[in-house]
């Protein structure tokens, strides 16, 4: 038995065992309803166990929640009918696009949830309108195929994350950051319309003119409000890219030096005389590496003459040595750049049969003000003292969202149900083990320790919705991901649009 199948089987047994206490659902009414509506679906007992395993297995092997059933609709009408079946039987529903939810929310998000998963893998259209340059994109398209699809139709581009296997559905509706986001906004900001199936089964196309409240709510809280079948996205002409990476690993010799190096990067990042929206920036940290990398949309001459010297001088003044032989500055096409960032040989992702997985726990810290020395020093104390002997593999990435001229910061909560428009930095701490191991408690503790080192020394912080952390209670999640004002407005809308709480997961709006 493959490790994946073993995990899935163990999870199924766990669900059955718990189900014995919490009364497992009788699947017959649901399967009868789906069959009557001619909706393709899979059950754990399906005659094709391979198809079930493929569609029911979570990306995050640490949280292998087993859905009640998976529907594989081919039309919006089928999605609508499936939602009505579930609603009439009080079965929770979650859409699944790329399946990359950190919390396995697209499989229900809880061992007891018994969720109907609406897998959007048949919604793969990518069509660019040559008058408006708006792309109509199916709710199941993965980011690599999205980038290739719009580039092939007139060399168009969108800002979005780096991993080609991530799905549009979760990523675009919960923020969505890529190195081009300072130039073009978060993935979410490029949505000009959504075709969405509501809890009532109604299908609406929501824009800033029509169904405004739905348009607003879906951009930030789609998982609580419906299933987006088609996204309408405003594309831009693809830029050419200068891609850079500077190795500053020597700074990890001490936490004091690493702190100075990071604060030097921050002072560079806030320097409006050199930093414009054309710059995307991140700092990647492991136990043995510290790199400053990103992209610049402009000529390599301008980069070498202005941006690079400002960054390198700041690091030098902080006493941090840049290993030029482990650094690089290259001119790339848009697609070459995305391919490098994606870390796979190609951006193309199979339309069906995607089975890449990871076994991980991650969390995030977002700040809207520059870091003071204290949280950074406390953070590097953990990195330098404990990083090498951490109980799990880990990395951290600190991305610049705000700063001079960032196009993310021009919006606010009146634009979308999203709290992160004023983020300056977003830090992600990510721990993982191989698929055949059990993620240890000590690994959870280590990732928490990294995160806490910062948050214990910050007056204010929040967290990034696309790096959703399932260990938060609903109340903590509301506070960190949305804030009271947004939650209040969303709850009121939820009561109107989804009074039976059909679209739910452990942290959804209610
Ligand atoms: C390897 C990897 C790399 C990543 N890189 C980045 C990055 O560079 N930048 C970044 O910002 N984030 C990144 N992320 C995080 C990623 O953006 C989120 O995990 C995202 O929510 C995944 O979207 P998905 O469609 O694949 O997930 P899913 O698990 O399918 O969905 C996530 C949530 O959204 C809901 N949902 C999905 N589709 C729809 C829909 N059509 N309508 C309504 N609700 C829907 C689901 O029900 C679920 O609650 C990365 C994640 C991974 C695993
Ligand atoms: C492109 O969009 C315009 C404006 O919405 C619309 O009138 C036109 O029909 C679209 N073109 C195609 C080919 O769909
Ligand atoms: C738009 O133009 C591109 C070439 O610039 C072409 O490849 C594509 O097919 C056109 N799209 C439509 C819908 O006509
Ligand atoms: C820019 O700088 C890099 C080294 O940092 C160098 O390899 C490259 O040749 C330079 N390019 C130009 C056009 O100056
Ligand atoms: C900003 O960058 C310019 C150009 O490199 C430099 O001269 C200036 O000292 C920097 N300012 C700060 C506050 O670092
Ligand atoms: C890079 O240069 C340093 C000396 O500056 C040397 O110690 C190291 O081995 C070199 N690394 C590579 C990969 O060439
Ligand atoms: C939010 O943005 C809108 C539109 O740009 C603007 O009118 C409003 O004043 C902003 N609100 C706040 C609190 O900044
Ligand atoms: C676990 O998986 C890794 C690769 O992911 C493999 O190298 C290792 O041998 C496996 N260990 C066991 C005990 O199966």
From TrEMBL:
Keywords: FAD, Flavoprotein, Oxidoreductase, Signal. It comes from the Eukaryota. Residues 1-19 form the signal peptide. Residues 63-238 form the FAD-binding PCMH-type domain. GO terms for molecular function: FAD binding; oxidoreductase activity. The keyword Protein transport does not apply. Transmembrane segments: none annotated. Belongs to the oxygen-dependent FAD-linked oxidoreductase family. This is FAD-binding PCMH-type domain-containing protein.
């Amino acid at each position: 038995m493959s490790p994946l199948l073993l995990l899935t089987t163990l999870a199924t047994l766990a669900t059955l065992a718990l189900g014995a206490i919490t009364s497992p659902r009788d699947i017959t009414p649901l399967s009868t309803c789906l069959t009557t509506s001619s909706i393709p679906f899979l059950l754990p007992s399906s005659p094709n166990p391979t198809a079930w395993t493929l569609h029911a297995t979570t990306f995050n092997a640490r949280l292998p929640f087993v859905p009640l059933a998976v529907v594989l609709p081919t039309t919006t009408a089928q999605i609508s009918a499936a939602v009505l079946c579930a609603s009439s039987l009080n079965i929770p529903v979650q859409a699944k696009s790329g399946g990359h939810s950190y919390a396995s929310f697209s499989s229900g998000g809880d061992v007891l949830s018994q969720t109907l998963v609406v897998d959007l893998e048949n919604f793969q259209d990518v069509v660019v309108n040559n008058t408006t340059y708006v792309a109509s994109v199916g709710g199941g398209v993965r980011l690599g195929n999205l980038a290739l699809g719009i580039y092939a139709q007139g060399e168009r581009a969108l800002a979005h994350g780096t991993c080609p296997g991530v799905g549009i559905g979760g990523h675009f509706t919960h923020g969505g950051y890529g190195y081009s986001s300072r130039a073009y906004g978060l993935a979410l900001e490029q949505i000009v319309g959504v075709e969405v199936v509501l809890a009532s089964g109604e299908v609406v196309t929501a824009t800033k003119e029509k169904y405004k409240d739905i348009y607003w709510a879906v951009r930030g809280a789609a998982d609580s409000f419906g299933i987006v079948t088609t996204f309408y996205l405003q594309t831009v002409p693809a830029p050419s890219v200068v891609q850079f990476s500077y190795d500053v690993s020597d700074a990890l010799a001490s936490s004091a030096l690493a702190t100075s190096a990071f604060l030097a990067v921050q002072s560079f990042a806030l320097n409006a005389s050199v930093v414009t929206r054309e710059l995307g920036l991140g700092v990647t940290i492991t136990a043995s590496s510290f790199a400053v990398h990103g992209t610049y949309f402009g000529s390599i001459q301008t980069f070498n003459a202005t941006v690079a010297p400002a960054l390198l001088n700041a690091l030098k003044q902080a006493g941090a040595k840049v290993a030029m032989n482990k650094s690089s500055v290259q001119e790339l096409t848009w697609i070459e750049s995305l391919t490098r960032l994606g870390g796979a040989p190609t951006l193309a992702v199979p339309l069906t049969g995607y089975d890449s997985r990871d076994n991980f726990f991650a969390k995030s810290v977002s700040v809207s003000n520059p870091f003071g020395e204290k949280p950074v020093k406390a953070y590097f104390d953990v990195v330098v003292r404990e990083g090498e002997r951490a109980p799990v593999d880990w990395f951290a990435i600190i991305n610049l969202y705000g700063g001079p001229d960032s196009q993310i910061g021009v919006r606010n909560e009146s634009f979308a149900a999203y709290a992160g428009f004023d983020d300056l930095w977003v830090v992600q701490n990510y721990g993982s083990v191989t698929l055949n191991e059990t993620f240890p408690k000590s690994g959870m503790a280590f990732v928490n320790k990294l995160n806490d080192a910062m948050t214990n020394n910050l007056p204010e912080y929040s967290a990034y919705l696309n790096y959703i952390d399932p260990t938060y209670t609903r109340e903590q999640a509301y506070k960190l991901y949305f804030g009271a004002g947004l939650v209040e407005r969303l709850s009121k809308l939820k009561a109107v649009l989804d009074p039976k709480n059909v679209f739910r997961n452990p942290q959804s709006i209610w």
